[in-house]
Amino acid sequence: MKSNTMVYNPYSQATFLKSAAKVEQLPEDTGFEVAFAGRSNAGKSSALNCLTGIRQLARISKTPGRTQLINLFTVGDETRRLVDLPGYGYAKVPMQVKLDWQKNLAHYLDVRKSLRGLVLLMDIRHPLKELDQMMVNWAFDRELPVHILLTKADKLSRGQAQSTVLLVRKHYELMHDLLTVQSFSSLKKQGVDALIDVMNRWFEL
Length: 205
Ligand code: GDP
Hints:
Blueprint: E1 15-20, E2 32-38, H1 44-52, H2 55-62, E3 70-75, E4 77-84, H3 95-111, E5 115-123, H4 130-141, E6 146-151, H5 158-171, E7 179-183, H6 192-203
Parallel strand pairs: 2-4, 2-5, 5-6, 6-7
Antiparallel strand pairs: 1-3, 3-4
Residues 38, 40-46, 87, 151-152, 154-155, 185-187 line the site of guanosine-5'-diphosphate.
């Protein structure tokens, strides 16, 4: 259902801060971070575009050579950072590179104190793949809240989309304190306000 109130969107102010190949190269671990992750092609760049309204933002993350990096964007000032984690699961990547990425992602999720929440994107037609579940488990290992964004919801009927939301919720029923789920469509700009609400809570905005 569309809300009538306009939600203030602080993410329209996001600007590129830096890229990092390793956790050690990230900015000082203070303030707040909210990370976006998902399989490659899950719709992460489109969702970031949709959220920030800044086309250039996701283009930075898609620049050849930057797709394997952690890309950081500031929201307001440098104490609040939006973190675009490298997409995982791309079939054509050699196994060793995949394993290195996984180690890097797990390490980031494990040690980053400023990290307040993980937005995990999954194509609504193919949710809960093995690597997605691994990401959720890594986050739960440190009691980090996870917000699952079921993307490309416009590809399904409303009813089908809603039953996938319920299915994913049910899968993590016992962890409901840490996990929220919503459907999202960058194409139709659906679900943006709900996403902003969750992020504002994590960023304490
Ligand atoms: P990323 O690899 O996770 O950054 O994914 P992209 O944002 O590049 O999207 C991958 C593909 O899915 C592209 O062809 C997009 O046009 C398409 N896509 C992304 N979001 C949506 C959406 O909300 N609806 C539809 N129908 N297609 C989408």
